[in-house]
Amino acid sequence: MLSGKQKRLLRSKAHHLNPIFQVGKTGINDNMVTQINEALEKRELIKISILQNCMEDKDEIAEQLAVGTQAEIVQIIGNIIVLYKESVNNKQIILP
After folding, report:
1. What is the mean pLDDT of the chain?
2. Measured between alpha carbons, how far is 20 from 34 in angstroms, rounded to an integer?
3. Nearest alpha-carbon partner for 47 in 12, 22, 27, 71
4. DSSP element (H, E) containing 22
């Protein structure tokens, strides 16, 4: 679990990022979870956009992605989910 201080740091770093994945009306599938997991390994911190035509609740989507990738939910703001997962090989973010 991330502390409040760690989440604040990650939110400030995520502010300048653009979403690199979109969840549409088909929701989440195994392939998407795999791709997000690979992106988290490379970047550690990513944004995911939820499109207007998505039928599922954004909190449920965030939870499914977090469980599927073993990542932490940093923030859900509007239709954007910010996920963090410490990288094994490409460590870039040092948490306090």
Report:
1. 94
2. 14
3. 22
4. strand 21-23
Residue in the structure block whose two tokens are 């599927």: 68
Contacts of 77 (CB under 8 A, 6+ apart): none
Measuring CA to CA, which residue among 34, 40, 31, 28 is closest to residue 64?
A: 28
Tokens at 28, concatenated = 């989440």
Query: Mapping DSSP to helix (H, G, I), strand (E, B) and coil, where does residue 44 land?
Result: coil
Residues belonging to the chain: 96
Residue ranges of domains in the chain, CATH in brackets: 4-84 (3.30.110.60)
pLDDT tens digits for 1-43? 899 999 999 999 999 999 999 999 988 999 999 999 999 999 9
Lowest mean pLDDT among 45-54, 58-67, 85-94: 85-94
